[in-house]
Design a protein that fits this description.
By secondary structure, the protein is mostly helical. It contains 13 helices and no strands.
């Protein structure tokens, strides 16, 4: 049930994902499976975060973290600290985000948890990019990408390629940005990662808009909006605003 929920979540059927997670959680609680409980609480936190319910996400991550600490599961602790950092970053608390990422990275290095290291480096790169240190961001992204490739983590590879595309866009290399976004989309299509596909379509739309191709930008924004609306994602509003901007409707 838990693993089916992960698939439904990746494909954008969030209601079915939530139902399966909760059924899984109920059974794990009856069994007293503390590790399983913590894992499903963590996934429910990600689901809440995807739907922009940040308070609920924080509560679920914290419950998961408390159990992992009691169990001494260092890999899970590092992963959950990383996600709490991303939550803090979403809420513009960048100092807290950096602290949580660094805690995650320190634990991951100590216990040689490559997946957690890759995740923390990825998010630290995003933080550096937001704060304007693009060279450091690129170095962190590249380290993360190398680890994801070593692990064969296709979802991690796609996500980091997307951020490298965004970085190239910030540096004015639009051809490189387009190539990286497309590589990211190709992997996400194979994985069925609908939300990730929509994010990359939206970024490609921004590229087309910046190059003055409003017809192509509108097509890409419309593709992103269709997916976001189907997922009932809060990102639909951003895609709608982008589409209206290139179609000139925001000038009325």
């Amino acid at each position: 049930m838990h693993n089916l929920a992960v698939i439904y979540q990746a494909q954008g059927d969030l209601n079915e994902a939530r139902s399966l997670y909760k059924q899984s959680l109920d059974i794990k609680r009856k069994l007293g499976d503390q590790s399983g409980i913590a894992g499903t609480l963590h996934q429910l936190g990600r689901l809440a975060q995807d739907q922009d319910d940040l308070d609920e996400a924080h509560s679920l991550y914290q419950q998961s973290l408390d159990i992992h600490r009691k169990l001494g599961d260092q890999h899970a602790i590092a992963t959950t600290l990383n996600n709490l950092g991303l939550l803090a970053q979403t809420q513009d608390d960048l100092n807290e985000a950096r602290s949580l990422y660094q805690q995650s990275l320190d634990i991951a290095w100590k216990f040689d948890s490559l997946r957690a290291i890759a995740g923390a480096l990825h998010n630290l790169g995003l933080l550096e990019q937001i704060q304007g240190d693009l060279d450091k961001a690129r170095s962190l992204y590249q380290q993360s990408l190398d680890l994801h490739r070593k692990l064969g983590d296709q979802r991690g590879i796609a996500s980091t390629l997307h951020l490298l595309g965004w970085l190239a866009e910030d540096q004015g290399d639009l051809d490189e940005a387009r190539s990286l976004y497309q590589q990211s989309i190709d992997i996400k299509c194979k994985l069925g990662d609908q939300r990730g596909i929509a994010n990359s379509f939206h970024q490609l739309g921004r590229l087309a808009e910046n190059e003055g191709d409003k017809i192509e930008a509108a097509r890409l924004f419309r593709e992103a909006l269709t997916i976001f609306e189907r997922l009932r994602s809060p990102d639909a509003e951003l895609a709608r605003e982008s589409l209206e901007r290139v179609e000139g409707r925001d000038e009325c």
